[in-house]
Amino acid sequence: MVRKLDELGRIVLPMELRRTMEIEKGDGLEIFVDGEYIILRKYMPGCVFCGETEDLMEFSGKMVCGKCREELGEGIPESWKKSKRAR
To answer: Where is the SpoVT-AbrB domain (predicted)?
Structure first.
């Protein structure tokens, strides 16, 4: 399959490809370069710490997975937790 760039450098992804990859109007695509290849991938936000894409929750505008949330919670000293509760 070959597609030509238009005068603004755009290409059209064929409908069948968009259906197969579940790419909808307005979805983000990540663009990577690997040697001589340009790679397009549907954007899927991941955990800011480990990159996991499942069990995500937003915290201060960043996505954090369950495992990292647990690890972060374990890293908080008890004395700090208690002093925060008292406020």
So the answer is: 1-45
